[in-house]
């Protein structure tokens, strides 16, 4: 009886949070170019009519059999739009992880229930723009993952969100609590069909002395509009390595904010963008230092071709109490032809003078001397261009854990190989 009450109550509380986000969404205006983060992405150019509160009618789609990924995972989860999650376990320690699917409610103990609600409420406190509110207006495509203290997994947790067609609004929300002293790798893949409308959130809480590696990779169909809000909270001595890649679609806009809230927290951000014809990718990162003795760095690289456009906005923000901050931000762009464009806007907001912070940015074309060197050794000009592009991006992929690199590298590299590089 007690477990039934817990299950019913958590569903009721999540619905209350959905309703509050829905009401705020209706009152909130769409972002406009007058706002700093939206200066270069004008939503008036796009058809946003599909970004409305989703229909509450339950509509479960069919789920195909989950792929095994050659058993290279501890947990594999497939969450298809409007459907219950399909879960496969492949490591004994993974049985200790709690996975909560709001579309298929299950009994939770008191502690897990509290953590699920904390994650949802924390997301509601941080994702206040209209698209973030829309994501939280429904948990139909959401998952909550609770990793207990002291758990170490050898293989990654893979969560694959998939929209099989573009008819319904896709809300791939992932909430993760990583307990103290835990060591896990979490890969989130978002796959959208052509002409999809997608708005999702990722909210990760990293406990004391945790060692967390995360990745968000996307496989976006043509003419799709995708918005992802990402937030990380780091406690004392927590380590985070986060990677995100973006390519495809008509517009992809992501925002990643990291709060370094515990002494000696350490955050490493990596990103790869590939924008081709008629695609705009807008990525923003915020390294927010709130206490002393923390380290953070962001390394973002983009390749832009044809009429593609990439936009990177990076901010290091240091609070008054965050002395001895050590933070870096770098962005490097390769523009492959005259029609392509890459914008880079790194910035600092420092409220303490006992810090070490810097940022840098470069935008260039492929070096003709490198092409000449490779072609003089019997390599075709096209192959030389591919090799240079792979080398340019590999410096990011080489910083990732082996499992995250092997899973994510091919997604963009395969697209680059399929597209001829005009140099």
Quick synopsis:
This protein is of the alpha/beta class and 423 residues long. The chain contains 6 helices and 19 strands. It has one domain (2-365).
Summarize the structure in words.
The chain has helices at 2-27, 110-126, 130-135, 368-375, 381-397, 402-418, and strands spanning 75-80, 86-89, 98-100, 143-147, 157-163, 174-178, 183-192, 197-206, 211-220, 225-234, 239-247, 251-260, 266-275, 280-289, 295-304, 309-318, 325-335, 341-350, 355-364. β1 (75-80) and β2 (86-89) form a beta hairpin. The chain starts with a helix and ends in a 5-residue tail after the last helix. The chain has a 10-stranded mixed sheet with strand order 2-1-5-7-9-11-13-15-17-19, with helices on one face. The chain has one domain (2-365). It contains 6 helices and 19 strands. α5 (381-397) runs antiparallel to α6. The relative contact order is 0.09.
Would you tell me the overall average pLDDT?
91
User: pLDDT below 50 for ≥5 consecutive residues: which ranges?
Assistant: none
Relative strand content:
35-45%
Order of helices and strands: HEEEHHEEEEEEEEEEEEEEEEHHH
Structural class call reads alpha/beta
Radius of gyration based on Cα positions: 21 Å
Coarse morphology = globular
The main sheet comes to: 10 strands, mixed
Structural topology:
Blueprint: H1 2-27, E1 75-80, E2 86-89, E3 98-100, H2 110-126, H3 130-135, E4 143-147, E5 157-163, E6 174-178, E7 183-192, E8 197-206, E9 211-220, E10 225-234, E11 239-247, E12 251-260, E13 266-275, E14 280-289, E15 295-304, E16 309-318, E17 325-335, E18 341-350, E19 355-364, H4 368-375, H5 381-397, H6 402-418
Parallel strand pairs: 1-5, 4-6, 5-7, 6-8, 7-9, 8-10, 9-11, 10-12, 11-13, 12-14, 13-15, 14-16, 15-17, 16-18, 17-19
Antiparallel strand pairs: 1-2, 3-4
Helix pairs in contact: 1-2, 4-5, 5-6
